[in-house]
Write a sequence for this structure.
């Protein structure tokens, strides 16, 4: 009898020390941004999007991630402060440094040794910097943005890429971003819930994609997964996540 009591007490101690599973559903853990097209999106697509977010590290860890840096196609170096919206872009081909806050649109630009001060020229360059950030960051963090404002997602059933079957997810946009006419199709692993390929359509009405590229080589950065240094040699490389960086990185050339 004593042995039985000790066993029950031991089991109780083990259970009390075990971490509690979250009681929230994946949808509750990953609330949609204001303006997400929930009515136009089907439940299967939303469920798949929430599964992708969970597989990538979860919404909470994404929200807590602050500084992300990467190189884009070997042409530009970007550092993004997710908390403040400050971005530093160093463009090697045209010797230009952009310091822009993508939330406010404010910032400054230096081309070679010249700091741009003429208001109209500066405004155009800062708008260009934000467009660069929108494009280049999408190539890196798109899986975390499936329920963003203006996005409609549809589950397209099973599809095959490179002789493997995937669940496919379609993204279209309603008057958001710089190219709202675009469409994407994502190929999601049936078991790991990670995006393995993505197809890009410059116009949502076209039948064949402009490209199908791998989204692979996932690595853990901080508490999230990101895909860099992909097997086709394109997109983001030199990916880093930092908890702190000097403020001067975003304020001084």
């Amino acid at each position: 009898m004593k042995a039985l009591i000790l066993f029950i007490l031991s089991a109780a101690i083990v259970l009390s020390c075990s971490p509690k599973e979250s009681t929230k559903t994946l949808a509750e853990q990953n609330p949609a941004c204001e303006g997400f097209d929930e009515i136009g999106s089907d439940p299967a697509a939303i469920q798949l999007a929430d599964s992708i977010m969970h597989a990538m590290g979860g919404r909470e860890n994404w929200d807590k991630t602050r500084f992300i840096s990467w190189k884009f196609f070997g042409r530009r170096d970007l550092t993004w402060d997710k908390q403040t919206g400050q971005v530093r872009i160093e463009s090697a081909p045209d010797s230009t440094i952009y310091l822009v806050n993508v939330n406010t649109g404010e910032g400054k630009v230096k081309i070679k040794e010249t700091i741009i001060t003429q208001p109209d020229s500066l405004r155009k360059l800062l708008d260009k910097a934000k467009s660069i950030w929108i494009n280049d960051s999408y190539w890196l963090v798109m899986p975390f943005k499936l329920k963003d404002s203006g996005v409609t997602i549809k589950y397209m059933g099973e599809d095959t890429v490179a002789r493997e079957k995937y669940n496919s997810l379609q993204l279209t946009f309603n008057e958001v971003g710089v190219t709202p006419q675009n469409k994407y199709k994502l190929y999601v692993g049936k078991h790991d819930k990670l995006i393995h390929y993505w197809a890009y359509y410059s116009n949502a009405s076209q039948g064949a994609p402009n490209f199908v590229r791998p989204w692979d080589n996932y690595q853990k950065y901080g508490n999230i997964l990101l895909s860099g240094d992909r097997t086709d040699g394109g997109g983001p490389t030199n990916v880093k996540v930092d908890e702190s960086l000097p403020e001067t990185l975003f304020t001084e050339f």
About this structure: The first strand starts at residue 67 and ends at 72.
